Amino acid sequence: FSEKKSTPIDINKADTSEWKSLKGIGSYYAKKIVGFREKLGGFYKVEQVAETYGLPDSTFQSIRSFLLISTD
Description:
Layout: E1 9-10, H1 16-20, H2 27-40, H3 57-63, E2 67-68
Parallel strand pairs: 1-2
């Protein structure tokens, strides 16, 4: 059993395993977020992660400080 240690991730580059490293994100939400990102063609701001269907706002708020966005 490994304790989840939240380290910052790039929301446009992270795969499902990186998403799952965040507290509160399991396989289900990791797949939803990555799928939503693919539909959008990439996120342009961190707040868009909160728009992932079914993702509780409380979960988004708890991971928000670990979400980074690349500008390249």
